[in-house]
Design goal:
This protein has about 170 residues and is of the alpha/beta class. The chain has 4 helices and 6 strands; from the N terminus they run E-H-E-H-H-H-E-E-E-E. Strand 4 and strand 5 form a beta hairpin. The protein is globular and about 55 Å long.
Length: about 170
């Protein structure tokens, strides 16, 4: 039986947690819950939450890589994508501060790459966009989640867990 793990939120903390679970040695069943409609972006880096000119508060050199560094990912982008974010190719560097929306696009792209890696390593992955975990109940043999869908419906789920639910 595969260990079942839930990750609540697909912002930076959820994505780094997901990354560290992708080892090919032990296949897992991982469900990622995201309240928003775009898993991987993270609320602080979502276009609905930020002005395009708002910079991140961390230089790219301090942002640990997911599957590649932010700078490597930026260098792979075409000129039109860079210009949409106000980035000139010649200014891309490890010590630069980039707009928050760039970090959102980077994290979402890295999330998509990690989903492929997870499948290649034999993990079962379930992504639940527009599913907000509203309650967690720890029971002796399971952890029960109460999840609200974007349509307002609630669905309780219960699963025996050998791992801690991560948020």
């Amino acid at each position: 039986m595969r260990s079942r793990i839930a990750i609540i939120g697909t912002g930076p903390t959820g994505l780094y947690t997901f990354k560290h679970l992708l080892s090919p040695t032990t296949p897992l069943s991982i469900t990622l819950y995201e309240a928003e409609g775009e898993p991987g972006k993270g609320t602080p880096y979502h276009p609905d939450m930020n002005d395009p000119a708002m910079l991140s508060n961390i230089p790219s050199i301090e942002l640990p890589a997911f599957t590649e560094t932010l700078v490597d990912w930026l260098r792979r982008q075409d000129d039109d994508a860079l210009m949409r974010h106000g980035i000139r190719r010649e200014t891309i560097g490890e010590r630069e501060f980039y707009p928050r929306l760039v970090l959102g696009d980077y994290m979402q792209a890295q999330f998509e790459r990690m989903l492929t890696i997870a499948a290649d390593h034999g993990h079962e992955i379930y992504v639940r966009a527009r599913h907000k975990v509203v309650d967690i109940e720890i029971q002796p043999e399971a952890i029960r989640l109460r999840v609200a869908h974007s349509e307002g419906e609630e669905c309780p789920t219960s699963a025996p867990m050998r791992q801690t639910w991560l948020s």
